[in-house]
Amino acid sequence: MKKMKAKKKRLLVLAGVFCMGILLFGCGKKNAEEKEPVKEEPAKEESVEEEKPEETYQVIGKESEDAYDILLTNKTGKVIRGIQVKSSEQKEYPANMMAGSQKIEKDETVELYYTSETAEKNESKEEDSDKEDESEDTKKDTPEIADAVMNVVYSLQITFEDGTSQELTSFAVDDIEEAEICYEEEVAFLTYESKSEDVEISTKEAELALKADKKAAKTVTDQIQNVGGVTLESEAGIQAARAAYNALTDTQKKLVTNESLLAEQEAVLAALKEQAAAQAAAEQAAAQAAAEQAAAQRAAQQNNYNNSGSYSGGGSSSGYSDSASQGTGGCLDDVILN
Asked: How far apart are CA 289 and CA 282, in angstroms?
C-alpha cells in the first residue's frame, strides 16, 4: 500500500515537473519572441523615374507667344544652311531664318520658331481694337479673321550647304509639333504626325506630283520664251506654244510664269498680220491703179494716133505709100537698067 502511495506521489511529482516544464518553456519562448528584435523587411523602392535634364536644341527663328514651335529633324542626308518659310498670302520668300554661322547637321533636331505674317497682322489688328471701344462691326470681323487663318497654307524652302535648294509645299504649320525633313527621288518632303487627325502624314507623293507639274510647266515656259522676237514667221511657233499651254492642267497653268508673254506675242503677231494684210491690199490697189493708168495711157496714145490719121485725110498714109513705091520702083529700075 505504501508502495502504491509512493508511486502515485512520484507520478504526481513528475506530472507537476512536466507541467512546470511546459509552462517554463512556453514563457521562455514568449519572452524570447518578445526580446528578439523584429527584422523589418526593407521597404520596396517605389519606381520613381529619374528626372532627366531637359533636352535643349539649336533654336531657329525668334521665340514668342505667337510663334509656332516645331521640332524639326534633318533626315535629308545633307547639311542645311538656310530655312525660309512663307504663307500662301506671300508671293516671295522672306529672308533666311538661320544666322550666317548656323547650320543643321545630318540627323540633328532643331527647334524652329515661326511667326506667320497672318498672325502678325492679326496681332496688330487686336492691338488697334483694344485701343478702341469694341463695336458690332469688330465682332463681325472676328470670324473673317479666323477663316483667313484656317485657309492659309505654308511652304518651306531649304538651302543645302552645296548651294542647291528644295521647296516643301502646302502643309499646315499649326498641325505640326514634330517633323522630319526627308530627301528622296530628288524631292524634299515632310513626315509628321498630324495633331488634328492623329495620323502619320508624308508629303512625298504630293511633292512628286508637283515636281511633274513643274516639269510640264517649264517645258511650255521655255517654248514661249524661245519664240523670241515676233515676226510673221513666228506664227507657227506661237500657235504651237498656245496649243501646249491649253493642254496643261489648271494646276500646271498656274506654274507657267510667262503666260502673259504668250498673250503679248499673239497680240504682236495679230498686229503684224493686220499690217501685212493692209500693205498687201495697198500694194494690190497700187498695182491695179498702175495697170489701169497704163491701160489708159495706151488707149490715149491709140486714140491720138487714130486722130492724127483722120486729120491728115489719109495723105500721110498715101504719101508714105507712094514714096515707098517710088523708092522700090527706083531700085527696080536701076536693076533693070543694069
From this structure: 10
3-state secondary structure of 51: coil
**Total length of the chain:** 338
Q: How many CA atoms lie within 13 A of 325 on its CB side?
A: 6
Secondary structure class of 304 (helix, strand, coil)? helix
Contact 251, 282 (CB under 8 A): no
Amino acid at 32: A
CA 258 vs CA 75, 245, 272: distances in Å: 35, 11, 21
Beta-ladder partners of 237: none
Domain-wise residue ranges, the chain? 58-132+143-202, 204-301
Q: Containing H/E element for 123?
A: helix 117-131
Task: For residues 138 and 125, give the distance between their C-alpha atoms in angstroms, rounded to a whole number.
Answer: 10
Q: How far is residue 237's CA from residue 89's CA, in Å, rounded to a whole number?
A: 35
pLDDT tens, 49-81? Answer: 566 677 899 999 999 999 999 999 999 999 999
Burial class of 110 by CB neighbour count within 10 A (0 to 12, 13 to 18, 19+)? buried
The angle formed by the CA atoms of residues 98, 102 and 104, to the nearest 5 degrees, is 95
Q: What is the largest CA-CA distance in the chain?
A: 239
∠ CA 296-281-290, nearest 5°, is: 15
Of 3.30.70.2190, 3.90.400.10, 2.60.40.2890, 3.60.15.10, the CATH number of 58-132+143-202 is 2.60.40.2890
pLDDT of 79? 97
- Give the residues across from 180 on adjacent strands: 73, 191
* pLDDT of amino acid 332: 46
How are the residues of the chain apportioned to helix, strand and coil, as percentages rounded to the nearest 5?
Answer: 55, 15, 30
Between CA 314 and CA 147 the distance in angstroms is 107
